């Protein structure tokens, strides 16, 4: 029997060994505070499910996610937004369950950060991946840690510094995604059933902790360093505020380089 939150649907499969988690609300499945809170709660719940072996995570509708709410990035909201968003990733690490992203359409900004936190990513060939934060005058704290882990520093910095997007085929070639399929959700579920279902859920959790324990510690250390850099320094700069306001006002940013 599926469990439905207002913005997240949890569908247990294979007797509860696999969860298909579909998230989204407004167009583009914007990761605003409400959606992030529900996703965080789902991963807290996942941590307590003894029989759970894998979570397949996908966006509702034609897109994975356009990213985090730009309005919530403005200085008056940034602290609540950023700290809540980072708590989602802490919950993913703490759940210690194999997590697989199924990506269709746009997977941008915070959406790509969420996908990058997963152990595997399956995507449609025409999916679009990118970290466009720099085009808004800000940077992506989670991607600054996890994208480097997944791609290596040079390829990660290309995406982080340029803000460019790549399609699914290019994402596969650069190691960002693990497989291309016109039905990425089916591909993700097939992986969970064929590669994970025969194993002990308890042992899989230990394996995830063993493989990702160091990464979880690095993430916590690095994100603690990046939060004040973002909130106390970046948000005090003229260009960060200008870039965000220009996006909201649908105009070209006028950079002062300050």
Describe the protein's architecture and organization.
The protein has 9 helices and 10 strands. It is α/β, with parallel strands linked by helices. It has one domain: 2-enoyl-CoA Hydratase, Chain A, domain 1 (Alpha-Beta Complex), CATH 3.90.226. The protein starts with a strand and ends in a 10-residue tail after the last helix. The model has no long low-confidence stretch (mean pLDDT 96).
Read across the widest sheet, the strand sequence of neighbours is: 1-2-3-4-5-7-10
Count of all domains? 1
Mean pLDDT: 96
Shape: globular
Q: Tally the helices: what do you get? A: 9
Features:
258 residues; 2-enoyl-CoA Hydratase, Chain A, domain 1; three-stranded mixed beta sheet; globular
List the helices and strands and how they pair.
Elements lengths: L2 E2 L3 E6 L4 E6 L9 H15 L6 E6 L15 H21 L2 E6 L2 E3 L1 H7 L3 E4 L4 E3 L10 H11 L1 H10 L2 E3 H6 L5 E2 L3 H13 L4 H33 L4 H11 L10
Parallel strand pairs: 3-4, 4-5, 5-7, 6-8, 7-10
Antiparallel strand pairs: 1-2, 2-3, 8-9
Helix pairs in contact: 1-2, 2-8, 3-4, 4-5, 4-8
Can you describe this structure in just a few lines?
This protein has 258 residues and is an alpha/beta fold. It is 49% helix and 16% strand.
